[in-house]
Amino acid sequence: MSPPAQIASYTILPITIPATPLAGTATHFLYFRKHSAKQLAPHDPRSLFAVNVPIDSTTTHFRALFTKIGGGRVERVIFEEGGGARCGHGKRKRASEDEEVGGDVWDRPLRKSGSTAVVVFVDKPSRDMAIKAAGKVSTTAVVWGDGISEVINIPALGISRYLTHHNLTHPSKVHLQASVNTFMAVFEGEERARLRALAKRRQVPDEDGFITVLRGGRTAPARQEEVKAALEKKRKDKHEGFYRFQVREGRKNQQIELLRKFEEDKRRVAERKQLRRFKAGSGSGGARIV
User: Fold this and answer.
1) Residues in domain Ribosomal RNA-processing protein 7 C-terminal (predicted)?
2) Contact of 214 with 198, CB cutoff 8 Å
């Protein structure tokens, strides 16, 4: 394929897109020029403005491309945001690759067809070297992605990409349980800290000498005896009264206990009355009250 017509101030760089299981190789044309924005940024003097970047572009791809053609070292690439499988629609913005939206369920971004990018080099001579190198290879296409080290793990496209997307969208039960446990641990820690702060406010007076009265007080027995009594009552009430004969026996035992206490009280009253009776005194033969 012959290169398109020249565009003023742009350098045309043909690249070969490798074949896929569904399509053969294709020639793609990249357009470069010195970056000059209306609002200058500190990195503009050492940047290139790229047009028609491939949809699978990454910073690693551009580094490998300029290394292959003998250009300068790339520091980073600022891609256009506003399209692709993991980007939203709306007003176009510029954001670095790490700041793109929707990275939770996609393992890598895809660029909008015909989108732009700003390639930032380590210095201005590296940028100028890249422009000269791109002009020299304008008649020979360079394979896109050629020279990327196998150590750099770039997620694959095709069906593998969408299987990964499905797995990230619907995580496993183990992953969900771990996520819930982490959330609950953080929540419980914050709740304990809040309760400690409230308890401290109940004990420490303010600058005027008043203690803040807060809603909610003691929610459990404070003494050990009360704790034991509450547990014992709960244990007894757990199974009592389940059957009718248990209810009858319980009432009968209560009546017997009441009668026993009544008889004891009668006996104590009789003894006290006996002590307060008049007794005959010895000697003068008078009577006295004890």
Assistant:
1) 169-279
2) yes
